[in-house]
Specification:
This protein has helices at residues 6-24, 29-41, 45-58, 63-75, 79-91, 97-102, 113-125. The N and C termini lie far apart (47 Å). Helix content is 71%, strand content 0%.
């Protein structure tokens, strides 16, 4: 059996730690955000998506929460839903055009007309 890398051990520790916090405090945003990120790093995109959906209920006006939801949908190849979440993020104030263009979590959106329209909208506003 191959030995786990330190990075894999760290992700497992993070998941166990934040899952325990989330069990005790289900609406503790400061535990849910890193838990979703750890699930994503581990490739457990469905679990990350579930947390991101919960975060949109807890922090519905936070553009970063919606951006992360868009990333989760994208990683699951749910293109339309990803573009909708990203559009919501932009409407709420997300403006990092460069990150939106280069984020590897969004790479499978690059051919989507909805994604290109979103980039065009941000570019025309000259918001970065």
């Amino acid at each position: 059996m191959p030995r786990k890398t330190k990075a894999a051990e760290l992700v497992e520790f993070e998941i166990a730690f934040y899952e325990k916090l989330a069990q005790q405090y289900p609406d503790f945003v400061d535990a849910l955000i890193p838990l979703a990120e750890a699930y994503t790093r581990r490739g457990q995109h469905d679990r990350g998506l579930a947390i991101d959906l919960k975060l949109t209920q807890l922090r519905g006006e936070d553009p970063i929460v919606w951006y992360n939801l868009g990333c989760s949908y994208s990683l699951l190849n749910r293109i339309d839903e990803a573009c909708e979440a990203l559009s919501r993020s932009v409407l709420l104030g997300y403006r990092d055009l460069n990150h939106l263009r280069t984020d590897p979590d969004l790479s499978n959106l690059h051919r989507s007309p909805s994604y290109r329209r979103l980039l065009d909208m941000l570019t025309s506003r000259k918001v970065a």
